[in-house]
Amino acid sequence: MATPTYAECWTMLRNAVWALENLLRDGASNTENLLGHLDDFTQSLEGDYAPEAAAGAENLRTALAGMVSGGFLTDPLLREMAKAINSPARGAQAILTDLYDYMVDNADTVLSRTVVYGTPRPTTAVRSSQTVTFTGTPVANETITINGLVYTFKAARALIGEITINANNTTQAENLVTAVNGSDTVGPYGSDVFASNAAGVVTLTAREYGTKGDVFTLTEAATGTAVGGATFAGGTEATTTGNGQTERLTIDEDGYAIEAVHVDSYTAECVSDGNMGTDEGQEAHRVEGQDAGKDALEIAGSGRIIERMPTMSADTSLLDNASFGSNTVSSGVILATMTSWTFATAIGSHDRSTVVFRSSVKEATAYSLKLKATETISQTLDVAGVSLNPDRPYMLAVRFNADDGSAIGTLVVTFGNATFRCHVEAQVGWHTLMMPLNRWAWPKNFTAADMSVSIAWTKTSGNILLDAVILQEFKPYARTWLAPLTGSTEWLLADKQTWADTIATDSIFQKWFWRLYGRYLPHAASGNTIAEPS
Q1: What residues contact residue 41 under an 8 Å CB cut-off, 6+ apart?
Q2: How far is CA 188 from CA 140, 418, 422, 465, in A?
Q3: Is the confidence at residue 268, as pLDDT, over 80?
Q4: What is the greatest pairwise CA distance in the chain?
Q5: Is pLDDT of 280 > 80?
Q6: Is the model's pLDDT at 124 over the cut of 90?
Q7: DSSP label at 389?
């Protein structure tokens, strides 16, 4: 018998998945379905033999659940697919890994599940935001300025800070989202704001919860472009005692959303704080989703629980002297040495300060670094003794304070090949500049020959304080990734963060790769090369 081609393998998979989909619909989701009929049957039972009849109904349900939960139809087809793509793999999981890579290399996609991912939110906290609306087509070299960073419209985006021009308003909005989020291979520009699009209206949202983003500015000098206001607005502080923030990564190293997830609601609750013997800055949270469903006919929550997830702090950072407490001074507070950090110009131009983001367990006296002039500081991973895990994403976060002298300037953080920045002006108190939550968090994209972390301050006026540079692996949870960052005020027992994932209308292929194998394939919301079962 002839070996099926790649396209023929997809045809076979399409037919198999369509059979499973209709079996599931008849069993559980259609208006008239087996589960409903079995429930009616069970409720009607009477007499001495009712228990036996109920057991029979349960056996029927178990048999149907087994039919829609195993790979008995699809496993042989995946082995045929392995031959079609020249994969030596024989197990389903290994074949799906090779199929994913093959599809990435050949720009093949299935239809997306269009998951709307929740973000861990401290109780009642709201981020500041503002909008940009497109009603016409911008002209080349016109601009939009988001919190001091200038984005320029170009015929084609080639550099960070550039936005591709498109005559379609919705596509133009998506192009702005790409530029702001830095989600493509060009990379990120700023990282204190993220963007989303709905029918040509872009919502720009501050990364940090609360009112910190209310000072962010927004202006445009572009045709057919309107901003919702001169500043961001709507930020609301949390009612929790702790003011930390958990970042969630839902994008893989190739830029695809991680779609092998449940429709679920999650809670992270502080279960151990400093009053219970936990080191300062390392409070632990219990993270849990909703209960899992009874079987494959009624898939509900993920049922995933992590009993203790410690927060990330300067003390847990992979970098050495992450909070700048290990230093010496020559006179007064003028720096003479700073352990493990290299200064591009003269270390003696800068000071240390006792105004800190948060005390470190590793420090006898807590200090922050006060940069009084334009400067770049760096630390190589060799100095830190760090070896990166190529299969894990990383969080890099830098705490800064512009109050000391009302600093104005640009702060740029570089980690290997990834660079992100923010404009500093008018921010009050401690802020956090964080790694973008996209493909650039993965070693595949940021790795470089001589890996280092560098922090560059370009001063216009004033002095800036730096503290608590956190480099750490994201923590896996329910197939996505969490980075629970400590705040300047510690979490206390029972402080909570919540989030939820939703899907309005699920796709078919992608849903079944998740149901059967806990996997997903490269995907897009439209223009797919692999047709859906029907």
Answers
A1: 53, 57
A2: 20, 8, 11, 24
A3: yes
A4: 94
A5: no
A6: no
A7: -
Distance CA 130, CA 146 (A): 10
DSSP codes, 266-311:
EEEEEEE-GGGTPPTT--EEEEE-PPPPSSTTS------EEEEEEP
Torsion angles phi and psi, residue 391, rounded to 5: -100, 10
CA distance 304 to 293: 12
Neighbour order of strands in the sheet with 334-338: 327-331, 334-338, 351-353, 368-371, 464-473, 394-401, 430-434
- The set of residues, in sequence order, having a beta carbon less than 8 Å from that of 36 and lying 6+ positions away, is none
Q: What percent of the chain has pLDDT over 90?
A: 84
Alpha-carbon gap, residue 79 to 431, rounded angstroms: 51
Q: What average pLDDT is seen over the chain? A: 93
User: What order of strands is seen across the sheet that includes strand 218-221?
Assistant: 162-164, 149-154, 143-146, 218-221
Helix segments in 329-448, DSSP class H? 381-384, 443-446
Q: Look-up: residue for tokens 């049922």?
A: 303
C-alpha 509/C-alpha 521 separation (Å) is 9
SS3 content of the chain, % helix, strand, coil (to 5): 25, 30, 45
List, in sequence order, every residue forming a beta bridge with 331; answer none if it has no partner.
Answer: 334
Q: Could you tell me the two tokens for 171?
A: 């596509």
Mean pLDDT of 274-295: 88
Task: Estimate the crossing angle of helix 92-105 against helix 75-84, to 10 degrees.
Answer: 40
Model confidence at 299, pLDDT cuts 50, 70, 90, reads confident
SS3 of residue 38 by DSSP:
helix
Question: β-strand 375-380 against 475-477: which pairing, if any?
Answer: unpaired
What pLDDT sits at residue 426?
85
How is residue 145 written in tokens?
Answer: 């300025």
* Gap between the Cα atoms of 360 and 280, Å rounded: 7
258 vs 38: CA distance, rounded Å: 35
Six-digit token string for 484:
């629970």
- Least confident segment among 83-97, 196-210, 276-290: 276-290
pLDDT, average across residues 157-166: 96
d(CA 170, CA 133): 9
Q: Which amino acid is at 502?
A: T
Place of tokens 């939110």: 121
The three-class DSSP label of residue 487 is: coil
